[in-house]
Amino acid sequence: MRIAFYGSSLVSSYWNGAATYYRGILGELARRGYAITFYEPDAFDRQQHRDIEPPDWCRSVVYPATAAGLASVLAEAGDADIVVKANGVGVYDRELLEGIVARARPGALRVFWDVDAAATLDEMRSDPGHPVRAALPDLDLVLTYGGGAPVVDAYRGFGAAECVPVYNALDPATHFPVPPDDRFACDLAFLGNRLPDREARVEEFFLKPAAALPERHFLIGGNGWETKAMPANVRHRGHVYTAEHNAFNSTPLAVLNVARDSMASVGFSPATRVFEAAGAAACLITDAWEGIELFLTPGIEVLVARDGQDVTEHLSTLTPERARAIGAAALTRVQREHTYALRGAQVDALFRAHERQRRAA
Fold this sequence. Notes:
Elements: E1 2-6, H1 19-31, E2 35-42, E3 58-64, H2 67-74, E4 82-86, H3 93-103, E5 109-114, H4 117-126, H5 131-135, E6 141-144, H6 148-157, E7 163-165, E8 188-191, H7 196-212, E9 218-221, E10 234-238, H8 245-250, E11 254-257, H9 261-266, H10 272-279, E12 284-287, E13 303-305, H11 308-317, H12 320-337, H13 340-360
Helix pairs in contact: 1-13, 7-11, 10-12
C-alpha cells in the first residue's frame, strides 16, 4: 500500500522532536512493504540542520513553504492508499488537513497523527472552529503519540471514529550504548528544546538541583537555552544532533527526562528521549507521570522524581555502580517490550484491518 505522509520533517530533528518517532515507525512500515512518500516544508531552518539524508526506504519531498509549494504536494494526495497528516508541521497545518480530506481518493484511509495530543485537545476545547474538530467527521482514524485512555476518550468525545495511541519506542539500530565522550561528561544531563510549557518544569527538576549541588556538574542540550540564566555549574551544549544522542546519554552519571506541562497532566506519554536514553543504557531520572510502570519499573529500571528535591536526593546518593545497574535493566526492558518493530507491527495491523473493512464494504 502507498502512504502519503505530511509531517514536520523526517530528515531533521532541529526544533522537531518527532523526527526519530517518524523514522522508527515509518522505517518499520517500509520494511513491511509499504511505499512511503514523506512531504515536509522547507521551514524553520530544518533543512540547514539535517541529521540524516533521505533514507532509501522512503521518497522524501521537501517543498517550498509557500502556497504554490503546498498545492504541489497536495496534488499527490489522491495517488495514495493511506493519507496521513501529522500535527505540528508548523506551516499550513490547517490547509494540509483540509487538503488531505478533500484530495484523498474515495476509499483511501484518511489519518490524523497527533504527536502532541494533549496540546491539540486543549486547543480543541477552547475553539469550536478548530480545524481538527472540523475534520474529524471525515477522518477514518486518529493515531496519537501516546496519552492512554484520557486521550482516547477525549478524541472519541469530539467525534473521532477511532483513536489509538502509538507510543514512542526504541530503534536499537540507532540508539545503543557507546563509550563515554568527554564532551558530555557530567553528573546530570538534560536534552530538550526550550518551550513555554516545559521551562518551569526544567527550572524545578534541573536548575533547582543544580543550584542545590554546586559541587556537581550539569549539562543541558537543546535549542533556546542560550539566553536562560543558569547556575555556574550548568553547561549549555546547544542543539545535539541525533548522531550525538548515544554519547550524550551514555556518558553522564544520570540523564533527566522532564515532560511538558500538558503531557505530564495527561500521563501515559513517555517522550522519545525516555527510550533513547534507555537504549543507550543510561540511568534515567524522570519526573513522575501516570503510567510509567507500564514502560519502566521505578527504582529498578528508572528513578522517579516528584520535584527538584527528589532529583537532588537521587543524585546525592547515586553511585556509578547503581547507575550502571539501572541503565542495564532499562536497556533490557525496552529491547524486549518497546521497540519500533513492535510499534510498526501495531500500525500495520491497524492499516490492514481498515483495508479489509473497506474491501468488505
